[in-house]
Amino acid sequence: MRLASDPITIAVDGVSATLRPSLRAAYHLQRRHGFPALITAVIEGDLSRIADMISFGSTDASALPAFLREIEQRGAMRVDLIRPALFAFIGALIGRDENDDTPTSGKTITFEEHFTGLFEIGTGWLGWSPEATWNATPGEIIAAQRGLIAKLKAIHGSADNDQRTTTEMHEEVSPSEVSAGIARLRAVAARWKQ
Q1: Do 14 and 69 fall within a single domain?
Q2: Which of 88, 102, 150, 180 has its CA 20 to 30 A from that of 9?
Q3: CA distances from 38 to 44, 80, 148, 189 (A)
């Protein structure tokens, strides 16, 4: 997973818009259209859905109306120019990184569950404010969680650090050592009662 997705700039005839694949944009676009429909919209040049993608992802609301007017006036021939950037934007919204070869758990979840889980990680695990979490990209949230897990393992250790099983650890103590330990505990307890 890439730490942070680069902002995606799309331009048509000198008018541009910069898109940030934030969790907020991902969540709202999923709820409004669904990612399969967004992919279809980019393939087919559906200007209404493309405009929604640009609206939710735009970092500069003031430049947005001019850009959308240009797209609508020029139609499909201009969509061809921004299609690769829109696909990159969709991939970043999902949190997909073509260079990530981390194995998955194999469990299938919905996009809604995925984004809700990312929000829970941001606000719960990481302690970020809801606003900071909504403004982060999926990649940033996942990278921050990995950093927190690594920190906790460094501080508290992990199961990977001790390869012995519980049975193996118990077998190292002889019955006579256990009896002696119990006797010492009883003696300490008796002194406390006095």
Answers
A1: yes
A2: 102
A3: 10, 15, 33, 70
18 lies in the same domain as 71: yes
pTM: 0.70
User: Three-state DSSP class for 191?
Assistant: helix
Q: Rounded to the nearest 5°, which phi and psi values hold at 102?
A: -65, 130
CA 97, CA 80: separation in Å to the nearest integer? 23
Question: What letter represents residue 132's amino acid?
Answer: A
Domain residues for 60? 8-94
SS3 state of residue 89: helix
> What is the rounded CA–CA span in Å between residue 35 and residue 94?
9
* Dist CA 170 CA 156 (whole Å): 22
pLDDT digits 0-9 by tens, 129-153: 999 999 999 989 999 999 999 998 8
> pLDDT by residue (tens digit) across 6-46?
678 888 777 788 899 999 999 999 999 999 999 999 999 88
Report the distance separating Cα 126 and Cα 124, nearest Å: 6
CB 114 within 8 A of CB 122: no
174 lies in some domain: yes
Do 45 and 60 lie in a common domain? yes
